[in-house]
Amino acid sequence: MDFQSVNPLNVRINLISGNLFPMTTDNTRFPVVWKIYSAFVWFVISVIVIGYFFGLVNVSKRKAISDGMIGTVFIVEVFFMVARIHMRKNLVLQLIQNMNEILRVQDETMRRTVIKSLKLMHSPFKFYWLSGAVTAIIWIIVPVGTVFKRNFFFYEDYRLPFAISKQPFSTEIFLIGNLLLVFCSVYVLIKKAAVDIYMLNFVMLMTAQYQYISLKLKEVLRKEYSPNKLDETKRTNYSEIDFERKMEIKRICRHHSTVIRMSAMLKELLSLSFSLIYVNNILRFSFVGVMLLNTVMNQAYSIALLCLKIVKK
Questions:
Q1: pTM, rounded to two decimals
Q2: Which residue windows are transmembrane per the record (predicted)?
């Protein structure tokens, strides 16, 4: 086992997203085709994000806060987390090298523990990506229904403010803008899922090491040793059982020391990203609350107008 082969989901989504985070200690392993693909994806997303920010400053404050801020928070989070990992590439490569040295130990207990830990993240992340992509697509294309009501549109008519042309613009431009927003939203979501899986992969591998240490200690303390394995010289200094147990415990302690050092490195790499995720989740839920409040108020206003019309009749 090694860092790359132990989690195929991490490898696949890393390539599809275009993040191209290190998977081995050799940075030249990514083919040129994937590097070109990654550059193209980043270029298209960057152009769309620029159009989004131009649109954000040219709409009303209510639209910018209710719809725009959710997209802004999400974009900042993804770009920061991806940039953070690439900026600390040397630390990432060191972590991968140390992890590979641990995983290449031929131990069935290690293999079972690692596989069991990583399996826990597969189904939730697949559901997270699929549900997130479907939700984002539906949320963005809802305003498309307005093409049947009028022939010109403004930046505020998009679900997310987007400046693709001078306003007002035609139906064709409006539809193209929605397609670009869908593309950008889905790919940003894929990038977010890829960076989350990459970080969680490190965390789960470290968790598996602590579980492995616990299992090996239990195994050593319960194991019965054969006195025939020791020569007479060793018997004069140690009891047969105590000598072998001491050797096993020393090896486990060395492994534990390595894991402790790696945990400190992982904390240095991920602590800022996890703090940003925590703050952004608070902001995201706050803006969702603002959106729901605006929706409820608009519906209440419409119902009130309808009731007034009925009363007048």
A1: 0.82
A2: 36-57, 69-87, 127-148, 169-190
